[in-house]
Amino acid sequence: MFNDCLIMAGGSGTRLWPASSSRKPKQFLPAAKDGGESFFSLAVKRGLATIGGKDGRVIIIAGKGHIPHVLDACAKLPAAAKKHLVLIPEPQAKNTAPAIACAAVYAGITGGEDRTMLVLTSDHIIKPLSAFTFDAETAAVFAARGRLAVFGISPARPETGYGYIETGKPAGAGTPFAGSVYNVSAFREKPDLATAKKFAASKRFFWNSGMFAFSVDFMAGEFRRLAPALFRPFEKLKAPPSGAYTVEKGLRVASAWAGLDKAYRETESISFDYAVAEKCRQTVMVRAGFDWIDVGNWEEYAKLLGDTGSEVYRTGEGETSCFVNSDIPVALAGVEDLIVIIRSGKDGAPAAALVTRKGETQRVREIVEKLKKAGKGGLL
């Protein structure tokens, strides 16, 4: 399996605003209606299931403001699992390419040569775990061969909110992986509806899951070739000495890694897809055998949460088609097909409310942009 697994736990999580905010992004929200494990907690368990050997590590990169959420989630893990975790506080939010560059450098200078790395998102639903680990093992084989491996999801519908992977010829002919791994022809931007329908009808296009696998040495070479200015500040870093770490709630934290703040200041903010993946000539796609849900809007999240226990008062049967997620009582009268999200601010987060009709929840993005332009970024 992999030597290292990176879990990217940054991001502002505005698609599920106002429950998700810059103070507590989507990845730290409950992933089910029982209010138990968060999206992030489930990602950590996936990461632990994909590393091998005594020196296998799950590297978590999260914003400094989100460290308490990370610590609370990891505190519940057994001591044996915590030994495989290391947290790198991110000085600034600079998108996914700097985070992956940082983790690749860290893995190389602290773990030695010939290490392989799996990169996971922290805000998706992926199940069953057995199917995911099977596909991860396949990706590990190609990563060890000096390829960038990505995971593609068979489109369930025409979707304009996801990027797509266009596949070419099968890879691994004559091996057990024939038929499940393909060479990548191109990465496609989020399409319009007409194009999305064509993609969904084709057998050559897959949703881009945002997860990657590679050998650390290979990826360092790709960063130097494709994004040298971005990678250079991280290459200057030296391995943090033992005194650079603190232990908080049983989790090892690289809290004083000399030069990390400077590296983040000097690098650019760009996604890994744009900086490296779209330009890499040695990319293969593993066709996912697992279920994958992005939970990119309130309608999808409502399906996961179901009856959340909000104190809701309805005048009749008509309001049963409405979904309410609120920390204060809500009354509904003469309405239907609404999604009502209210946060009173009693937990320290900004007080805000969202009321939208089902089928319109993607427009939360528009609301977020309007709030930013109005100088109300403090609500996000």
Commentary on this structure:
- By secondary structure, the chain is of the alpha/beta class.
- It folds into 2 domains: 4-296, Spore Coat Polysaccharide Biosynthesis Protein SpsA, Chain A (Alpha-Beta Complex), CATH 3.90.550.10; 299-379, no CATH class.
- It has 12 helices and 18 strands.
- The strands form 4 sheets. The chain has a 5-stranded mixed β-barrel with strand order 6-9-7-8-12.
- The two termini are 39 Å apart.
Q: What topology emerges from the helices and strands here?
A:
Blueprint: E1 4-8, H1 39-49, E2 57-63, H2 67-74, H3 79-82, E3 85-90, H4 96-111, E4 116-121, E5 125-127, H5 129-144, E6 148-153, E7 164-170, E8 181-188, H6 193-201, E9 205-215, H7 216-226, H8 228-235, E10 246-248, E11 251-253, H9 260-266, H10 272-277, E12 283-287, E13 291-293, H11 298-305, E14 312-314, E15 323-326, E16 330-332, E17 338-343, E18 352-357, H12 364-373
Parallel strand pairs: 1-2, 1-4, 2-3, 3-11, 6-12, 14-16, 15-17
Antiparallel strand pairs: 4-9, 5-13, 6-9, 7-8, 7-9, 8-12, 10-11, 17-18
Helix pairs in contact: 4-7, 4-8, 7-8, 8-9
